[in-house]
Amino acid sequence: MFDYPEGATPIDEDEKEGLLITHITTREELNEWERRNIIDAYSWLDRTMRREVLSENFIRTLHKKMFGKVWEWAGEFRKTDKNIGVDWHRIPTELRQMLQDVTYWIEHETYPADEICARFHHRIVYIHLFPNGNGRHARVITDHLLEKKFDKEPFTWGVW
Which of 20, 67, 86, 109 could form a disulfide with 74 if both were Cys (CB 3.0 to 4.6 A apart)? Predict the structure, then answer.
């Protein structure tokens, strides 16, 4: 159904059945619907006063806000192995460990803010929590961490 760019993680056939918008037939259409949903998620982030970024609940909720109008499984951890990420059954354990590590780094000022956020981004992408949208989710939540915990500007993510 979808052509994947090089390096993209393909969606499992069972996961494709979670597509809520049944008339989508191309990757371009999927990208457009997901883009619209992500814009809504940014609005939600702007309205929320929550400073607790480092929780499983916030991480899942943000993913659901970003993709919940497109995918039935938005906000749910993946249940299949991918070409990237930890074995799917290790996701909760790896996520808890990452959240504990990042919390420790912040509390003890182990690294500068930018490095903490870069390490956070790397780990959340490495774990690869969800069937789809991990890279976009990781960038959004990392920027939110920078803004809410450190009162810093978001990363540019290579955009000049």
Answer: 67
